[in-house]
Design goal:
Blueprint (H helix, E strand, L loop, with lengths): L9 H17 L11 H16 L11 E4 L2 E4 H14 L3 H26 L2 H13 L1 H7 L4 H20 L6 H11 L6 H15 L3 H5 L6 H27 L4 H6 L8 H14 L3 H5 L22 H13 L4 H12 L2 H4 L6 H4 L3 H20 L5 H30 L10 H11 L5 E4 L9 H5 L7 E3 L2 H4 L6 E5 L1 H6 L3 E10 L5 E10 H4 L1
Parallel strand pairs: 3-4, 3-5
Antiparallel strand pairs: 1-2, 5-7, 6-7
């Protein structure tokens, strides 16, 4: 099927796809997700610190690895955020806009890859599916820039290697993209080497570097330069892996650190691997209480597209002898590996490279269904029916995501709403108090004071009345209702209440005195 036969303007469709993808990613970007998680704030604070001091928030000068809550992130997310912080200041919007940037870039790469695999029709459909896929929409709206940059560079690497099989000059940027991907998100350190093995098996680029006969001298030089560039980019990563900092996060979440027997470990890995192909994974979400990921009604893929995914996989299997199909099938086998070797969900974050693959496969399934249906109706009509069905499902997802999801995802197992309002209020009244104390009811609570009040709020700190109450100081505390219930020995005079979007109290801010003193 070719959209040109339906007299549809490709350029107009691409503009529509990018406009739709942009809206779904930019609408209420600062306020949905409703809170701002510590990992998001950490990336933003490091970018801000590098911009103003040339050092990260821990004092390292222009590092390639950024320390963050006992882990070390690659340089790509932080340095990607820096230009947006320079333009918009240190804010949730600036950090999350970086993910949007990578998300829109991924939509474009999906178009290029689909077009290269078949034609512009497949490219436009793949871009459309990518633009409307909840898996990508959600993570592209967060400050988890490592997720979005990983997905973008991984798919860009695949596209460039595929293009290099046709145009030898593209092998150099392909290797360069592969090397950069290593510094996006931890799973890349496992998946990029496996991807290179895959593409070298399908397209033996190494022959270009060593063969004096099969290829031109220019192609050999380009391939050698690509290999050298990739090797140079690997040096810091190899150092990080040898010292342990490159494996810090893996040791924290790995199934191999779960103290299971070898047999149970193997069974756990196999179970984790295949659950990511199960209907439950796509129809019910992940088995996790962490609402920052895909659970509690938030599903990674629009349900109406699942039949087309199956058709796309079936079509790829049926044509497995083609190199393009081998590339897609190899990608399909690689996608669950990062999630399989971790102890528990969320898998959707670690396996985010599956989302663009599924966009390609769903688009292939749609093309195949339209080709089959042309016996009964015009291709334009069957395609319009399919796109309408996807639009209805997208509207249902949008209603959930933009209306219901914010009401129930602000708590501790969600986006931990409240830090911004607490620190903002503390800044407003700081001059009136000796101490302003924020309860540590957040992951990494220490990151929020410098993020929301860089250089300000010198008297702000983290703690509770238990460990910070001083009768001779004028103090302001922010605590949860649960804290006040569990500690009746303190009585609070509430000056400000911070509420979740559903109306429940998240934090109370006020002065406290021991009940015994009051009496």
């Amino acid at each position: 099927m070719d959209l040109r036969s339906a007299r549809i303007n490709i350029g107009f469709l691409l503009v529509f796809v990018f406009a739709l993808g942009s809206f779904l990613r930019l609408y209420h970007l600062s306020t949905n997700p409703v809170g701002f998680f510590c990992d998001e704030a950490s990336i933003g604070l490091d970018a801000y610190s590098v911009l103003h001091t040339g050092k990260d928030s821990h004092g390292a000068i222009l590092p390639l690895f950024f320390e963050s809550f006992g882990d070390y992130k690659g340089f790509v997310p932080v340095y990607s955020v820096a230009p947006f912080v320079a333009l918009f200041g240190l804010s949730e919007f600036a950090v999350r806009l970086t993910s949007v940037f990578y998300g829109l870039g991924l939509i474009w790469v999906l178009y290029l890859l689909g077009k290269a695999l078949k034609n512009r029709t497949l490219g436009v459909l793949a871009a459309f599916i990518g633009a409307t896929m909840p898996w990508l929409i959600h993570y592209n709206r967060t400050g988890f820039v490592d997720f979005s940059s990983y997905a973008f560079f991984f798919v860009l690497t695949i596209y460039l290697f595929y293009d290099a099989s046709l145009h030898p000059g593209m092998v150099y940027p392909a290797f360069l993209s592969a090397g950069i991907t290593l510094y996006t998100y931890q799973p890349a350190r496992l998946l990029i080497p496996l991807l290179l093995v895959l593409v070298f098996m399908i397209y033996p680029f190494w022959r270009r570097a060593v063969s004096p006969v099969l290829v031109t001298s220019a192609a050999r030089r380009t391939t050698r330069r690509g290999l050298i560039a990739f090797g140079v980019l690997c040096i810091p990563m190899l150092w990080a892996l040898s010292t342990g900092i490159g494996l810090r996060r893996f040791t924290q979440v790995s199934v191999f650190g779960g103290h299971l027997s070898p047999v149970k470990t193997l069974l756990k890995v196999v179970s984790n691997y295949f659950v990511q192909f199960s209907p439950q994974y796509f129809l019910a979400g992940e088995g996790t209480p962490i609402m920052r990921h895909f659970t509690e009604g938030l599903l990674p893929v629009l349900v109406v597209t699942l039949p087309f995914l199956l058709v796309g996989i079936g079509r790829t299997l049926a044509t497995w002898k083609r190199k393009e199909s081998q590339l897609l099938l190899g990608w399909l086998l690689l996608y669950p590996i990062a999630g399989a070797v971790t102890f528990e969900p969320p898998f959707t974050a670690r396996a985010i490279i599956g989302a663009p693959l599924f966009a390609i496969l769903i688009a292939m399934g749609i093309v195949k269904v339209v080709e089959v249906c042309k016996r009964f109706c015009r291709p334009a009509l069957s395609l319009a029916i399919i796109i309408t069905a996807i639009g209805v499902n997208l509207a249902s997802f949008s209603q959930y995501y933009f209306v219901q999801y914010p009401l129930k995802s602000g708590g501790f197992y969600g986006w931990q709403y409240g830090a911004r309002d607490i620190v903002t209020y503390f800044k407003q009244v700081e001059i009136q108090y000796d101490d302003l104390v924020m309860q540590q009811d957040f992951n990494g609570p220490n990151i929020f004071i410098p993020f929301y009040a860089p250089g300000d709020c010198k008297n702000c700190t983290i703690g509770t009345p238990d460990d910070h109450y001083k009768p001779d100081h004028k103090q302001l505390f922010s605590v949860t209702p649960e804290y006040l219930t569990k500690h009746p020995e303190y009585r609070m005079t509430v000056l400000k209440t911070i509420r979740y979007l559903n109306g429940d109290t998240a934090f109370s801010i006020g002065t406290v005195v021991p009940v015994a003193v009051q009496e």
